[in-house]
Structure formats: C-alpha cells, structure tokens
Amino acid sequence: MGRRKVANQKKGALAGLSVPQSAGLLSFRVIDPVGEPLVQAQYTLNDTQGRKVVAGKTDPYGWGVVVVPVGEYRMSVSADGFAAHLGRASVREGGAPVALGDLTLHAAPTLPLPEPGDWEIEAAHTRIGFTARHIGLGRVYGGFGNFAGAIRVGSTMEHTAMHVVIDAASIDTNVKMRDNHLRSGDFLDVENFPTLEFYSDRFVHRGGQNWVITGGLTLHGVTRTVTLDAQYNGVRVGMEGETRAAIHATTELHREDYDINWQTMLARNIAVVGSNIKVDLDIQAVPKGTELEFK
C-alpha cells in the first residue's frame, strides 16, 4: 500500500512520519483560559454520520495528534471543570497536516448548591447499584432496595457531611438463589453484618459540577476509605412543590479489601465472580421532614 511522509516536516518533530494515502494528520493543543496546557483532556472525532472514528486524551503538554481518514469531522474536547469545546475539522488529500492550533476550554458554570440544613435521601428516587464480572464473560447487575441516608449541608461544602446506612439483606440481583448466596457467610454474611455504612470525610470541588467525596465504608465488618467521583446535578422543585437536590456518583470496590474472599475457579483460572465491584449511585435528597404523597 502506498504511503507518504507528512509534507513540510523534515526538520520538525514529525519528520519521517508517514500516513496512508487515504488519510491525513490532525493536530491541536488544549489549553485553559490562562494558556496552561490541559493534560488528559478527552477528545473525540465523529464522522458526518455520527460514528466515532477516534478518541483519546491529550499528552502532558496538552497536545493531541491523530491520523484519520480523509473527510469531515465533528470534534468535541472536554476536561473536568471546563465547558466542552465543540467544533469541526476537515482532512483533505495532499499530505498537508491540518493544525487546529490552540483550543481554549473555559471554566464550566457552577450550579447553586443546596441550602444549608438537614437533608435526607429520598429512597423512591434513589438507586444504589453495582456491577460485578461473571466468569470473565459477562456482568451481573444488582442493587440494594432498603437504605436511609442523611446529609447535613454546612455553610460551606467543607462543613458538609453525609451518612448512609444500607440493609445488607436487601441485596437484589433478580435471581433468588444467587441473592441467597450473596447474603450467606460466603459473601455479605448478613446474619453477623446486617448493614453497610458510609460516613463522608470531605467534599472536594474539582470544577464545574464535578466533585470528589471521600469517606469510610464499613462492609462485612471492615472499614476502608473510598473515593466517590460525583457529578452534582443541581436543585429543582418536584411535582409536589418539594425541593430536591440530585447527585450521581461512582466508585470501585475490591472484595478482598473487605475480607470477602469466597472464590471458585473455572478452567484456565477464570474466577466465577470477579474481584472488582463497580458501584453506581443516583441520589435525590429533600429537606428533612418533607412530606411526600407519592413515594
């Protein structure tokens, strides 16, 4: 297959780089409003049909350099705490690199925080879910149906605290036999450890609507520090005139960290149940004492 060197780059960093005849080279640098490079900014190029062609992250200097087929592209660039950049790029025949130059991302607007005071998790519109690997092939999805939580919003987020209690026996993966096994001494051992508890330690703003919540999770009688990657979704008025605040958060746990070591191996040392458990939370909270007819 015919290949060509990038034109006019004999003395530059791209000297000697070859691209296919049907492709071109696209480069850009992602910076913040004061001109500093944004490291690990995420970029995606889609074709005119909306299909993703390439995606990646910027290097330690904020640069992204890709070789893509000749054509028209829609481009998006994002980074934590910054509003996304949306644009277009054209890659033409002829071998000349396409340099988009500096793409500046501006700080994302922040949503108003909840009013200081005592809030409580509204269970009817909250989901505590998890995903586990099954025999190295697929995933098992589950959640907990019985839980309660309180959030004390301080005058600043540094003075905010959260406490959540989960009924371990309420685990549900939609398979009765599997759920009974998960409640047994091989896993959660609900007879000896009836609850899971989370106490927050601190809330850290990462910019925009992105936050990090750290705290202690007690599971199976063991307490470990966990970090929640959270996205704050703001405050709204609900259907009954109530005030609601919403947040989505994720984290990953390792069973062995909590002394849950049950394991059965298949051929080729494939575990029946994977070690890593992905946790996905959708939380809505209302001021403490809010009376709701529809729950």
Automatic annotation (TrEMBL):
Source taxon at top rank: Bacteria
Pfam families: YceI
Domain Lipid/polyisoprenoid-binding YceI-like stretches: 118-286
Database matches in InterPro entries: Lipid/polyisoprenoid-bd_YceI (IPR007372), TTHA0802/YceI-like_sf (IPR036761)
Signal peptide: none
Family in the record: Belongs to the UPF0312 family.
Protein name: YceI family protein
